[in-house]
From TrEMBL:
Designated name of the protein: DNA-binding response regulator
UniProt entry tagged with the keyword Transcription: yes
Lineage summary: Bacteria, Pseudomonadati, Pseudomonadota, Alphaproteobacteria, Acetobacterales
BP GO terms, sorted: regulation of DNA-templated transcription
A GO MF label: transcription cis-regulatory region binding
Organism (species): Komagataeibacter xylinus
Highest taxon of the lineage: Bacteria
Length: 242
């Protein structure tokens, strides 16, 4: 999962990034409110973790403006500010959770995962599709109880497909999820990752879940895809699992 960290203090940012990366998150860090707002508007993050006391545009304003712009990214405030009024203001402007410093890394990770699950419409940490299960907390993937070993990039792709099950995802969406618009490789690398992921799932008995929608991208479904009813006057997309 890709996280945007908005933290003006370099030492705190480094410490928090280390905790997040150890928990399996991919982190982009900025140190100003304007940069944070720009990143939120430009890229799709699973979560923004934000200090409210920033050098230029405070975190409350970043949250308020992003909500006004209909940016869907959930926000967890991470701050030394402990006053009830500050927390109330954060929630009233659109924050989804509030954690105070100093924090326990395990608690922060659990709160982050809970906010992300709620934002995706899941109340528990395990995502399922047919015989496939993925645990967001442990990053374990299994098919009918048998563990499937994935690389970091393969896991991130499968995680995104499961979180947006039934939605066609473009290669741009995968690149953004994997690299966040920074040092992105050529788009064909997504086809390579999908091919390797499919082979591992095929061996485990779940190779038919990821379908190709030609000219659009990839989609994960609970069962092998079948033709759906298209809107009147629209052409049906060509769907295949090959």
């Amino acid at each position: 999962m890709r996280i945007l960290l908005v933290e003006p203090n370099a030492r705190k940012a480094e410490e928090t990034t280390r905790h997040m990366e150890k928990a399996g998150f991919t982190v982009d860090h900025v140190d100003t409110g304007h940069d944070g707002l720009g990143m939120l508007k430009s890229y799709n993050y699973d979560l923004a973790v934000m200090e409210v006391r920033l050098k230029d545009l405070d975190g409350f304003e970043v949250i308020r403006v992003s909500r006004a712009a209909r940016v869907p990214t959930p926000v967890l405030v991470l701050s030394e500010e402990r006053e009830a009024a500050t927390k109330v203001r954060a929630f009233s402007t659109g924050a989804d959770d509030y954690v105070t410093r100093p924090y326990e890394s395990m608690e922060l990770t659990a709160r982050m995962q809970a906010v992300i699950r709620r934002s995706k419409g899941y109340s528990e940490p395990t995502l399922r599709a047919g015989p496939l299960e993925l645990c967001l907390d442990s990053r374990a993937v299994s098919v009918q109880g048998h563990c499937v070993h994935l690389t970091g990039k393969e896991y991130m792709i499968l995680e995104l497909l499961l979180l947006r099950k039934g939605m066609v995802l473009t290669k741009d969406a995968f690149l953004n999820h994997l690299y966040g618009g920074m040092d992105e490789p050529e788009m064909k690398i997504i086809d390579v990752f999908i091919c390797k992921l499919r082979k591992k799932l095929q061996v485990a008995g779940a190779g038919q879940l990821i379908a190709t929608v030609w000219g659009q991208g990839y989609v994960l479904r609970d069962e092998a895809p079948t033709l759906a009813t298209a809107p009147l006057g629209a052409s049906m997309p060509h769907v295949t699992v090959a």
